[in-house]
Amino acid sequence: MLGIVFTTLVEMLEEKVSPEFADEVIVAANLENDGAYTSVGYYPFSEMQKLVGVLVEKTGKPAEELLHDFGYYLFGRLASAHGQVMAGRSGILDALSVLDNDIHVQVRKLYPDADLPTFKVLSKTDNTMLLEYYSTRELHSLAEGLMDAAADHFGQTIQRTTVRSDKPHTYEFNITVES
Ligand code: HEM
User: Fold this and answer.
1) I need a labelling partner for 54 at 20 to 30 A (CA). Which of 18, 44, 127, 170 fits?
2) Is the predicted pLDDT of residue 179 greater than 90, yes or no?
């Protein structure tokens, strides 16, 4: 997992809670490198799982909610750092329909080591989409936060539900654009 994901999580904790809280979480997570992440580094996904585990303990919130909120925050950081990646997209469904063959392709050029999921459009109308998400990391809640932030980015409101698929490590997002 890319260092930018770790540094952004720490930044979010510092900003939304406090620098002291971010330090406490890092200490409690007992990380391999004591949390000395660099945005251009690459670290095991298990380190992210440790951080989320500590956050669950400290906040009492479910991991899904924490990952959703982090996804929302992460989108803002990624999209503002790399505005060109979202340029030319007309709305949330347009952006989601080109995640695998455009947006994350551009991401791969920026970050060759990125561990990216796969997204497949199962069906689409003007205002609805059934989107299949596959990743062994099963970060579906992070994806939900990224989607909600992307919808806000376009000034759109979405309703969505998530269903675990029969296939391993796979989830389906049923998304409706309201406005
Ligand atoms: C439009 C909505 C988007 C969705 C739903 C989405 C979804 C995701 C998800 C779920 C992951 C976590 C990895 C996994 O599931 O295995 C991820 C990783 C990532 N995405 Fe996207 N993404 C979106 C847009 C973007 C944009 C606009 C950028 C950059 C400008 C971006 C850059 C990245 C990067 C750098 C990673 C981290 C890879 C790693 O940790 O190694 N994504 N994305």
Assistant:
1) 170
2) no
